[in-house]
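Could you show me some protein's one-letter sequence and the numbers that encode its backbone in two labelled lines?

___
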Amino acid sequence: MPNRKLIFFDIDGTLYNSDKQVPESAKNAVRQLKEDGHIVAIATGRGPFMYDTLREELGIETYISYNGQYIVFEGEVIYENPIANSTLEKLSAQAHSNDHPVAFCDEKDLRVSTKEHEHVKAGIGSLKLDFEVSEDKTYFEGNDIYQSLLFCSREEEAEYISSYEDVYFLRWHEFCIDVIPRGGSKAEGIKTLLDKMNIDIKDVYAFGDGPNDVEMLELIENSVAMGNGVPEAKAVSRYVTGHVDENGLYDGLKQAGLL
């Protein structure tokens, strides 16, 4: 199919509205894209177990999780990039000494060091997960951890940012930062998938809204920032659509000529 496109959607603030639900207009749009022969994929900071239901509902089998650290193509894992165990050990000890909780995320679960901490309740609670988060301070010792979460305020993050060379810190919540292997991003994940799929980057579209979407939106010429997105995302995007709560994703697809 000569006009077949590959379309990446972020989840939070892009597919998901403010209530962490997919608007009916977005569901219908994704179905139409698939019926037209296009490939629909996800690029998110979430772990795959956090959006099983979403993938099943939308029929999506290709996805980039943990901001590029865990990539699946048509149901097959094609790339894994865990954080070094020594780094997680150091981070855990440093955070513990500061009374800052840490979460460890692999492909099947998320475990937090102290789940009753107010910052954990606020950060994890904002994700509106459909499962109970378990507590395990040493989960990183026997599992490949693709992303960690550090729960601290913006004023408290500096000592961590200056302490590590192999990971970087990306804030997404008032009390929570993603800890990601350095060099990894949604943009790099897309490059990995394009090599596998043999698709020209000019036939790729990307939709996003957050700080972790900026590199992806800058990489992809046919990029769409949501109206609710951060200014940095809008600045590098070809199109800016409406708010996710106001059918922004559907309107963005029309604006980009995909519907």
